[in-house]
Amino acid sequence: MPVPLKLSRDESRAAAFIGLLLALSIAARVLDRPARVSVGPGLDLSTLEAESRRRLEAARQPGLGPGERLDPNTATLEQLMRLPGAGRSMAQRIVDGRQAQPYRTLADIDRVPGVGPVTLERWTPLLTLPPAPAAGPAPVRTSTAGTAGRSGSGEPVDRAPLDLNTASAAELERLPGIGPALAARIVAYRDSAGSLSRVEELERVRGIGPVLLGRIAPLVRVGN
């Protein structure tokens, strides 16, 4: 049977002191270790990363200075991000839109998804595009060289409104603000829906907003 080790008072104090130092050393290492982040099934890291990147990009992009204006047909992605409320995705949609069809007036910007009347009003003094022509019931006139389509005095007569359910893409392109890409989307929507029941359905076509619809509404019809 082992004989118990007897320590003197000084030896006991020294042993206790050494034990205290060891305990403090272990505690310091534990506290210095970085805390682990627990990722639960409901935490979407890709969403958090995208939101963080968006905020950083928005903070880095300074707003436009006094009198500074942009041409949406030539401005870079980073320059377009300086427009009020335009993040990277909005700027990219503007670039994609001009590649399909250049912007001729401010009304054309309204066809960009996400740009509504309020945003367009904020951007009007910041863009170099001319204002949109006033929407009015101005009839489309024909310039046929023959006598057909002319009045007795030889002046061109008004052409009947274009039927959206039967018009070809080439005929739709003759409407103000409608280019080849937009005309093709109108035909594609009409084919997928079967037919249009009212002119206002054109707003369901990507690129046609209230401003553009107001310009072409007097020039088109649906059925008789």
Description:
This protein is an all-alpha fold. It contains nine helices and two strands. A two-stranded parallel sheet has the order 1-2. The longest helix has 24 residues, at 9-32. The radius of gyration is 35 Å and the shape is elongated. The chain starts with 8 loop residues before the first helix and ends with a strand.
Structural class: mainly alpha
Number of strands: 2
Instruction: Give the percentage of residues in beta strands.
Output: under 5%
Q: What is the element string, with H for helices and E for strands?
A: HHHHHHEHHHE
Strand arrangement within the widest β-sheet reads: 1-2
Task: Give the topology, please.
Layout: H1 9-32, H2 45-60, H3 77-80, H4 88-100, H5 106-109, H6 117-123, E1 162-163, H7 169-172, H8 180-193, H9 210-216, E2 220-221
Parallel strand pairs: 1-2
